[in-house]
Amino acid sequence: MNKHTAALPYNLRRSSRAKNTRIVVTADKIEVVAPLKVSEQRIQAFVHAQKDWIEAALKRVAGRIQTAAPRLAPSEYRDGAQVPYQARRLPLKITTTKAKTVRIELLNDEIFWVKLPTGIADEQHSPLIRQALTRWMKNQAKQHVQELVDLHAPRFALFPRSIRIKTQKSRWGSCGPKNDINMNWLLLLAPPAVLEYVVVHELCHIKHKNHSPAFWQLVAEHLPDFKQHRLWLKQYGASVMQGL
Question: Quick check: is 73 in a domain?
Fold first, then answer.
């Protein structure tokens, strides 16, 4: 059984052998194991009280996974470095300009053109380019997510109250109790079809606040091949989570 408390989704499992309510955090879920007679109100209060611990545990689990996963981003952002974008690696082309800030442009969907202000110390080039690329990708993510919501939401009236692009280290997306959707911009490093799957996944939570058979059937109505995109995230998501 899937539940939500304070926008924190968890699976509830009743056990006749459980003497106390406990929480188990793994890479792909939060599970609450509770005795048969404990009320759902008490369980929700317990989970809410443990919210800080749960979020810390999620970060620890994500950190262990990332340590073992290969890093997609370059160690240094210099001319010719390969930057991950939509499951590809695109080279950087760096030029200097009279502009006051670092500017990023995607040329022919093949090259990241970096316009770097003159007079910046060499040791500052890489961190400033990384920051500019992050800003650029967040803006792109917002556009892509909105386009996907516009494409899929009308079919079954799955309209979110709001859409926010966030930096998250343990979740790809979420749908709150009032249908506010958060999306992880790091999905822009994954194949476009994977981003589409996560958007659809969160939209379907507007109708089903769980992962019941009805929920997955609704996902399949939008994306019949969603399982392959879900599998991609399980296989390569840890590398994507490391970001730029």
Answer: no
